[in-house]
Amino acid sequence: MSVVYDCSDPDSRTDGLKAAAAAVRSGRLVVLPTDTVYGIGADAFDSAAVRALLQAKHRGPDMPVGVLVGSWSTVDGLVLGVPQQARALIEAFWPGDLSIVLPHAPSLNWDLGSTRGTVLLRMPLHPVALELLREVGPMAVSSANVSGRPPAANAQDAKEQLQDSVSVYLDGGPSGAPVPSTIVDLTGLSPVLLREGAVSAEAVSEVLGVELGPKE
Fold first, then answer.
1. Could you tell me which InterPro entries the record lists for this protein (predicted)?
2. Which of 35, 58, 64, 180 could be 125's S-S partner, Cβ–Cβ 3.0 to 4.6 Å?
3. Distances in Å between the alpha carbon of 77 and those of 71, 72, 183, 207?
4. Mean pLDDT of the 158-185 span
């Protein structure tokens, strides 16, 4: 049985964050507001929970799940190395609507899908999401919808689609504009724009001082 917590009420928000943290730590799924659309999340290091997340979305491992973090410093423990280009983008756009793809640390015991040794990272600009992430650590998060249906712009939309596959719904009110994050791949010799979203390609190029290559 899932529970919805109204995060506009201070007491309900406190109870909801506590329940969400307990759910994540026990391998269950939660829905949380972000600065783009609502997300469905799980402990990034719990492979069974990530599989349950993909199952709830009716999605296969061929579409891997990204990871949300609650601080800049968290990234250092997740990737093989943080290049200067990544640090420049983090300083310019985090927390915010930019996702960065980097080679993940080979020692990490996680299974986010068919990532080919990489991980997509983002730090969202939403107080409820950040508070939960800082409590439980990195979370595997995808848009809170069944594949093929529109991403949820509020907790009610998410619950209508995902039902009791999710234990805790954190209702943070309507999400921002339903514009996805921009994705920049820094795993190769030159940065590649995988998706242009809320952050313009021009803004990214200006920070990096180079033109972005196209997606192959």
1. DHBP_synth_RibB-like_a/b_dom, Sua5-like_dom, TC-AMP_synthase_SUA5
2. 35
3. 11, 10, 21, 24
4. 92
